[in-house]
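User: Here's a structure from my thesis project, written as structure tokens. My advisor, Dr. K., wants to see whether a designed sequence matches the one we expressed. Can you design one independently, without my sequence as a hint?
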């Protein structure tokens, strides 16, 4: 059976002790699908003298106990700075051992260098298979009963890696914008002691929702937000400054109040990657502040300035509260409604900015081969 799908997110997992590549997408019928490719194996290269290759491979195999995750070695011809060279490829069963093995084997006599051991598994898979993030692909699959608890319409196992196909346009995406307000009477809020008092969300189908704390008790507000994200099941989550503030703050608060921030599609929590962006498995998490950095006309990249410049929300029409006054509006019952209005308008502005910038970001993702949440990170 073959299916066509638009690639939303990609990540690697170790499942039952074996590496897999998980491709999250939307098929031609609008269903959310997960394609699992169990054929994926990470690898790296050793650059050596040609005369020493057989000896080096023999020495590595003789010490197999040192490299239990090594599955295969072969000699290949590759181009290095335009020059053809022969290299030893080391194929492993676990991406986490790649760097350690490469550094160890680099000490073997005759090895000159080790290459591509620092390449992320998902990038390796994209490059090797010419995949196009935010683009359409065709893949031969078989149905599987594994991972039935994933928040997805259908799960398939790939018979072989997918191929990109020429098909114009993106499917209809569910987009959720969010923002948070934290309460601190003294200084900048710290998640260790200051609650999240308001979480506001807006969606691409014009749904607005707010989750409000009970004075300084924010467990219910955070829990309801998590449940709502899972209920709405967005393909893309957008924030403004969310990679460095909103997500880390919510994660820390969730930990302190004894719950998990399971807003992804496999019941795990958002995590910060090596590149600094926050990954939400199965969804594309986009921090619009990173995209705003490329707008030279806006000197001060505040949300209000960017929204005003893009014609999303004019500054003169916004409810504005200085960051230092947020706590004053929260404790004053007569002013709290103004704070709630400010918060929902913030989320609406974030969604408006996304409507102006996401199409360009998706095109950039397709051109560069970088997943959508990596484009501006």
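Assistant: Designed independently from the structure alone:
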């Amino acid at each position: 059976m073959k299916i066509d799908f638009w690639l939303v997110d990609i990540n690697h997992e170790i499942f039952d002790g074996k590496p897999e590549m998980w491709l999250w997408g939307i098929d031609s019928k609008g269903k959310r699908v997960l394609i699992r490719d169990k054929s994926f194996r990470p690898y790296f290269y050793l650059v050596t003298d040609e005369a020493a290759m057989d000896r080096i491979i023999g020495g590595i195999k003789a010490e197999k106990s040192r490299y239990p995750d090594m599955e295969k070695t072969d000699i290949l011809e590759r181009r290095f700075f335009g020059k053809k060279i022969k290299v030893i490829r080391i194929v492993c069963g676990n991406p986490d051992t790649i760097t350690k093995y490469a550094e160890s084997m680099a000490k073997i006599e005759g090895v000159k260098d080790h290459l591509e051991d620092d390449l992320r598994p998902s990038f390796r898979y994209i490059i090797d298979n010419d995949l196009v993030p935010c683009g359409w692909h065709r893949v031969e699959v078989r149905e599987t009963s594994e991972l039935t608890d994933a928040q997805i319409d259908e799960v398939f196992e790939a018979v072989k890696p997918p191929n990109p196909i020429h098909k114009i346009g993106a499917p209809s995406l569910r987009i959720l914008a969010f923002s948070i307000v934290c309460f601190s009477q003294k200084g900048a809020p710290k998640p260790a002691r200051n609650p999240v008092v308001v979480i506001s969300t807006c969606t691409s189908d014009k749904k607005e929702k707010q989750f409000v704390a009970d004075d300084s008790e924010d467990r219910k507000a955070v829990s309801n937000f998590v449940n709502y994200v899972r209920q709405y099941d967005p393909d893309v989550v957008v924030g403004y400054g969310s990679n460095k503030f909103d997500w880390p703050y919510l994660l820390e608060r969730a930990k302190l109040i004894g719950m998990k921030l399971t807003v992804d599609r496999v019941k795990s929590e958002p995590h910060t990657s090596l590149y600094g962006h926050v990954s939400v498995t199965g969804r594309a998490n986009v921090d619009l502040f990173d995209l705003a950095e490329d707008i030279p006309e806006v000197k001060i990249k505040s949300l209000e300035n960017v929204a005003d410049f893009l014609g999303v929300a004019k500054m003169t029409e916004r409810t504005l509260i200085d960051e230092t006054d947020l706590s004053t509006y929260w404790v004053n019952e007569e002013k709290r409604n103004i704070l709630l209005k400010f918060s929902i308008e913030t989320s609406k502005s974030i969604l408006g900015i996304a409507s102006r910038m996401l199409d360009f970001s998706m095109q950039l993702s397709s051109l560069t081969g970088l997943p959508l949440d990596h484009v501006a990170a």
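When you compare it with your expressed construct, this may help: The mean pLDDT is 94.
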